[in-house]
Amino acid sequence: MGEVNHAAQLILEQLEEGSIVWVALFGALFFVTVFYLFRGIYIYSKRSVESTNFVVFCVPIIVWAFLIESGPLFGWNEGGGVWLRLGISAAGQLIPVMLMLHIRSQVSYRPITAGTRVGWLAVPILLIANEALTIIDTGFDPGMIPGVRLPVLALAANAYFIIVIVQAYLLCFNVFYQMPKHMRRSTHQMLVAITAMLVARGISVFFVVAGNTADVLFAIALIIAMHTLYTAFFIANSSNVIVTSRDFVFSNLSTIVITVSLKGNILDWNHKDKNGCYPLPDPKYKEPYPLYRKRILEMGNGTVSPHYENILNIKGEDGENHFLFTWHDISYFGRKFGYLVEIAEVTSVYSKLRYFEDIAYYDNLTSLNNRNAYIEYVKEVSVAENMPLLIMIGDVNNLKKINDTYGHLHGDKLLMTVTKAVKDNTQERAFLARIGGDELVLLLPNADERDAVSFIASVTESLNAIKDPKSGTPSVSWGYSFMQDASENYNDVFRAADAIMYEAKKRAREISISGVVPQ
After folding, report:
1. pLDDT value at position 270?
2. Residues of each domain in the chain carrying CATH 1.20.1070.10
3. CA 449 – CA 300 distance, rounded (Å)
4. Is 362-504 a domain of CATH 3.40.50.1970?
5. By three-state DSSP, how is residue 444 classified?
6. b or e along 422-455 (b: 16 or more beta carbons within 10 Å of the residue's beta carbon)?
7. What global pTM score does this model have?
8. CATH assignment, 2-242
9. Would you call 344 helix, strand, or coil by DSSP?
């Protein structure tokens, strides 16, 4: 035991101010820090990597090392020792805060504003100012004269050091939660830097260590910190780490993502500023998803899309917007934990789909349903609850003759005039389609003879009121029949109606069968 104490005493003697070991150690710290200072500036200028706070972190270290090194070398300890110790103390109190701010710039996408810096630097600046005022008032160095420095202030300095270190640790631990494993290696280096400073400070505070030895421990910790922080740049720079942050990624999504429990309650969502430009209300914690969906519809006077129940049409300031709600299971090894609901604005896509749908199912000239829509409707309407089904066929008279005599533009005008009169007299529950050049089909579920006669009479009356100087009064030849039972063949009933229309159309040369539905 005596040999250990003797060895420790020899080490302490070697670390006395002005000794060769002392000069070499703090000289090394000074030049290493200067090197990393210029490397930080170079990294920033060449690689566009965030190293501003690393450069700022180097400055108080350089000051701290220079003052400790130059004191015994230039004899500043004599006469000017009080202010020298104040400079050393001031730089030492700023170093941990600068370390924490640098780590924050590397692992957090939230900007370090001027207010943030002032908030974190307020306490050490107040402590430094108090020491300076104490020197001015008493002429003594509160850091050197035992009992002069108030215990409360010493306690405050140590407490604030712990707060700063804990904050730095939390920033790093947040990386382990936010980022994937392969992006955590640079954070390991930062943890080494924080731990080295914590251990050095802890030994000097909780154990009886000579002042010079405490400075040496802190110098070693700073060398470790500088090296590990510099290494972290090349493992993964700040932009690479931040871009993998969960909160950062989710906040920049163009979609709204909501996690829902197995019971259907909303647990979390990506917190966008007013949900971006979406006219959607914010979800509420543990709000049932059906209630949130209802709130969306009520707020925007919305409706459910007739094409897909998971598309909601919401009226916003710039018109109607369409949102697609897509559900995904959250599961692991076959065990389901909840659901992920992705809400994406599909207004442009939805509009294009509607446009293509219009092309596929609507006639461009008359805006009536076309043959594709007609075939789809026949498949749906041919069921028992719609019987008897009225099938009416109309053929515009003299359309070919007018096309040949006056041109197709005049023929199109005639066709639009006729179809408008037909639409104006068609019941809402009826289906009307243009299935050929001059051929119209009307299907009316649960109809009878009176519906057919009334319809033909009203259309004829409307057309008789129209007088065209070239084509005269337009007219339509009609034929109709009833499908009494769903077991009947639709095409047979259609042919019967077409035959009646043929008899009514005196000039027809052949029976039209364009309305026959493929078997």
Report:
1. 82
2. 2-242
3. 45
4. no
5. strand
6. beebbeeebbbbbbbebbbbbbbbebeeebbeeb
7. 0.56
8. 1.20.1070.10
9. strand
